[in-house]
Amino acid sequence: MQGTVDGFTYGLVTPVTAFLMACLGAALGLRCTTRSLRTRGASRAGWLALGATSIGSGIWTMHFIAMLGFTVREAPVSYDRPLTYASLAVGVGMVGIGIFLVGYRGATRMALVTGGTITGLGVASMHYLGMAGMNFEGAFEYDTLTVSLSVVIAVVAATASLWAAVSIHGFLPSLGASVVMGVAVSGMHYTGMAALQVHLHPDAAPSGPGEAPTSLLLPMMIGPGVFLLLAAVVVMIDPLVVTGTPEGAGRVPGRAPARGGPVTSIPVQRRPVPPHESTSRKAYRQSRSR
């Protein structure tokens, strides 16, 4: 028997809130990645790790907030906690691989394609692993073509966001890029949900113990939510992240900065002012001009 699926039980509340969380995670991740390009050593790794965790947490929170509006009319749905949090680990880990590739290799074609593919596959893996953690008296069936489309959307969105992280400077352009990424991630999620069909088995044994959807709301909002809040504070107190000032601003053209020290301007030597014209020379010039 086929189940009746409703992905918008609470109307627009869950998709809009999920979209905003995806945008928040993307914005923080992009700004942290941009900041990492202006540092070296452990500081760069720290900023990249913070960016990867921000994006992964934002996407994971977006997914499960959206899933709060998902119901199967004929059967209650619960969640397996280990698989649910394993999807978070997979998402953050694979997003981190893509961000570290671009953070250390730069915006080369190979780094963007490789990093974007890994990051996009991580987003898709997080989505479908989270779906596998749902328990109910039945089984899911996916349309292969629609699932493939959702994966393509995730890969393209991830590649574009990585390019934006290393190529776009300034707060407002990065904010626009994060909105585009939020739209793409939400589009990937609901495309994947459109591929879903639920087949119920009335005679099957009841599903094992799990977490009800509403009981997951608290850890979702407190755990990743607090982390995103702290990441936002870190970003806001760093003026370079907010203003997007390019590295080397104020550098003298044609001169490389000194190693290990700030860039200082070099005064330009001016030509000495020629001496005053002598009286005889002035009289000679006036006679010639007559």
TrEMBL record:
Keywords for this protein: Membrane, Transmembrane, Transmembrane helix
Extent of Low complexity compositional bias: 248-263
InterPro entries: MHYT_dom
Spans through the membrane: 12-33, 45-71, 83-104, 111-129, 149-168, 175-196, 216-237
Residues covered by the MHYT domain: 10-199
Annotated spans, Disordered: 246-290
Name of this protein: MHYT domain-containing protein
Native source organism of the sequence: Streptomyces atroolivaceus
